[in-house]
Amino acid sequence: MEYNYLIVDASYFLRRNFMVVQHMVNFNYSALIDSFLNSIFKLRREHCPSGELILLFDKTPYICSERIKQYKKDREYITQTDVDKIKEELEKETDEVKKKELAEKVAQLEQRVKVEAVYMHAKSSLAKCLKGTLFNAIQVQGYEADNLAYLLSKMIPDGKRALLASVDSDWIYFVNNKVDYLRVRSKGRRDMYTTSKAFPELEESKQLGISLHNLGILKEIYYGGHNNVPGYCNLEGELLEFPDFAKLIYSQQNFSDSSTLTEYRNYYEALDIDTADNTEILKILEDTIKDDLKYDRDDKVKSYFEFLKLKPSHFDNYKTLRNRLTLDNIMEDFLI
User: Fold this and answer.
1) pTM
2) pLDDT at 31 over 70
3) Average pLDDT of the chain?
4) Which of 51, 150, 258, 305 is the most buried (most CB within 10 A)?
5) For 5-73+119-197+278-334, which CATH superfamily applies?
């Protein structure tokens, strides 16, 4: 299958490469970027050698976090401020055993903050500095890569096809007649989802008369998921089976006699990115996939690539670039 676009969950691939290379002796953001680009271009060579490469990045705070208080609140984030508070405890502590424990904790957390800063630096560099040079990158505050992938999946022009790539099971729900999904699993396993070949979620959406995208949201609020939204099926008392729950929430029925169903209808609408004001992001996405796409390069970067006579977003040219200058040199010149 030939694809015109390869749309990648860049936040996931960057994190995966981060987990691999963070223990290297010479670990730094350029090593992480180098590892990330190798993975991305390998993916491109294997699945979309002649198509447009589009990388999607998350950017907090998310729209869903503003709509649902507990959204992703179960995830632990350590900052230097957190470390400084423990340092203050350490300075006040008089018990030698506790002091030793706190000192070890401070050392571990400082290393964690330092390493995480490298990840964030690399993410910012990819989304800004190299955007429009080796690939096209999209990062807009409030939107997760999932949101961007779904919105893009609805905008693929007639006569063209796109391939999504991620590990996230949620991306299954973005498949349509123009868009396939490559789920990259552990140990090299890769699963392909396409409307030309039945898969359980697709069949279920047809049976219920609900779009794949809406089915994904309904399953998240019914069963609960990795975003910390409370699952309806975990509540106490007599509960609806999923098909009945899905049809009720999906309908426009008034739930004035049920505060629980009203609450879950609110969750459903809060998770549906179609209900947000997407005017700005839709224009960005439209410009990204239009036929006469022109890369939005910084003048210096544009001149640099023209001088080297490199064609953007081709792996062989990327290797040529790496052979002439190290990535560190490039980032020092063009870091925004």
Assistant:
1) 0.81
2) yes
3) 82
4) 150
5) 5'-nuclease (3.40.50.1010)
